[in-house]
Amino acid sequence: MTADTLDPYLDKQYNARASVPDCLPFLKEYADFSALARKQLRGELSVPYGAHPDETLDIFPAQRSKAPVYLFIHGGYWRALSKDDSSFMAPAFTQAGALVVSINYSLAPAVPVAYIVQQCRRALAWVYRNIHRYGGDPERIHVSGSSAGGHLAGMLLAGGWQHGADLPDGVIQSASPISGLFDLRPLLHTHVNAWTAFDLDTATLASPLFHLPGRPCPILLAWGEHETDEFKRQSRIYAAACREAGCSVRMLEVAGVNHFNILMQLRDPASPLCEAILGSMGL
User: Fold this and answer.
1) Taking burial as the number of CB atoms within 10 A of a residue's CB, which of 48, 51, 77, 237 is the most buried?
2) How far apart are the C-alpha atoms of 164 and 225, rounded to whole Å?
3) What does the longest C-alpha to C-alpha distance in the chain come to?
4) Which residues is 71 bridged to in the sheet?
5) Domains and CATH numbers, the chain
């Protein structure tokens, strides 16, 4: 990115941290409630799903066998946070009957976004092949994620890569990208490109909008009332494209929340977002 390519409007729209007065208290909530969840629950932590040291995941089993699997991918614009900030939903989801998996991945700019996509796909493949050993049902995997994690969930939904990983086309039974990014081309004209280093080709190749689900499945697309217009538009255009591809799509704007604190709804089974996700999982 150079100064002459920066678009001030797009740069403001995609500056998630600037959309709230101070995002640090929300990020602290992620970490604090996640640490509490790991103390409260029996879990298998930092289980390797690949050879890279960053390729680990946390598993929180349900108190039932053949439980549906809630696989969560953290956000952070591909350059921040980790699975250690992503256990906060585990008490509510396991109590509702779901097994929770939170995955870790390497961060930009040390690795490109395309590599992160491959890591997440390896994680999904590992879960499909191994989660039965922890009481999870590999035929009932729900993929979710927030912000950059919503983008990565979209790239797991994308068709065409599963055969090469020896996975069924329908490995994902349902999904809920939250506040996701689905067309990465606008990021070329924002400060985000300082660490993603996209060009038009790589942004297009990494955009779920151009790599739609190969097999239709129910998708919930959610965002907060107080998010920017561009973040809302991203979910709406992806929803329209997924419907064209034959998916059953529900859109949910969550009242009174922003790009960050929307995730605290996942701690409350009675919240609109948590209720919608659990419902899509059959819980």
Assistant:
1) 77
2) 39
3) 57
4) 101, 143
5) 3-280 (3.40.50.1820)
